[in-house]
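Chapter summary example.
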Amino acid sequence: MLMAEEVLLLLVDDRTGRFLVDSTRLDNVLAGAVLVELVTIDRVGFPPAGGGVKRGRMVVVDRRRRVTRCSMARWPPLPPAGRRSPSS
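The structure predicted for these 88 residues follows.
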């Protein structure tokens, strides 16, 4: 079972089925659990110094290639919300 699933089960009242925290905290806790899970399986981490990424930023690690914020800058920008790109 993934960590986020375990955390979600811990945050649900067994008797009522309601969450024990408000929706904002629930979102943050689940996002943190997913991030911890990704770190433990070495899919995200901190780059070495001088790697072209600002200090304190995390990078996504793909086994086939390494994707950083710098390399993402070369990708085309997303269309504004509510509009579809010409290719879709």
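To summarize the output: The chain has two domains: 1-41, 44-75.
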